[in-house]
Amino acid sequence: MKMLPVAIVVSALSFLSACSTLISDPASMRPQVTSTADRIYAINCGENHAKDLSSWTTPADQGKPYVFSNNCYLIRHGTDWMLWDSGHADRIASMPDGMPNPRGTSIAVLKKPLVESLREIGVTPAHIRYFAMSHSHGDHAGNANLFAGSTIYMQEAEYDAVFGPEPQKYNFTPANFEKLRGAGIVRLHGDHDVFGDGSVVIKATPGHTPGHQSLFVRLPKTGPVLLSGDAVHLKSNWEAKRVPMINYNAGQSTRSMQEMDAFMKTTGAQLWINHDPDESAKIPRSPAFIE
What we know:
The chain is an alpha/beta fold. The protein contains 8 helices and 13 strands. The termini are far apart.
């Protein structure tokens, strides 16, 4: 029997060894995530005119008025559209003096209805395939009923609070969700990859409300961004890891900010703070878009 040269045997064994390592190591078989969303539109969805900033910051700001910015975010991914938050109810645009909240602590102001802002981009509510809200307060869920035909993502804890027996306990307005009963709501238990390619990921960040969530978006030119929702209201709160007294659960809020911080360091994401007007002003507003 003719023997194979030693070099060939060694080479063959090395190849088999390498193949064995690949098969036995699942991590090495995972595809590298390089997908991105195409673009994102930051839509001006109103303002909150607060009478006393200290409810969100420290007693040093007691009696200080403040105007919070408020955005909705429209994301294009291939031929699909996703809307994140729906802003103040469009009916408020017809109220010259805005609409006070039930507690009398702030006034909701809206200059242009969301439907009109979407129309400027060439989109109607019927085009929105996926819809999710950071949480269910009126400045983020005011137009939720417009998207009953979309696939809707909510954390189960938020769903239970909204559709449970005491939504008012969480400062939720039941009328904002009346058309969503029986809609295609996907109840989440943590993070969710919307398109399955790592480009748009819902991150569970409870604390401000029971099922608050934030949104991670990879963009082709800007890179990764994390939309804060109300997990962070102001840049100063983020830097101090400060929890507003109005939050549902302070401990959860702190943990969520710590997890967001670690996630941002891992991914290199920049934080877009929704309610901070100085931070919000850095982002081009629709109909312009960010890639």
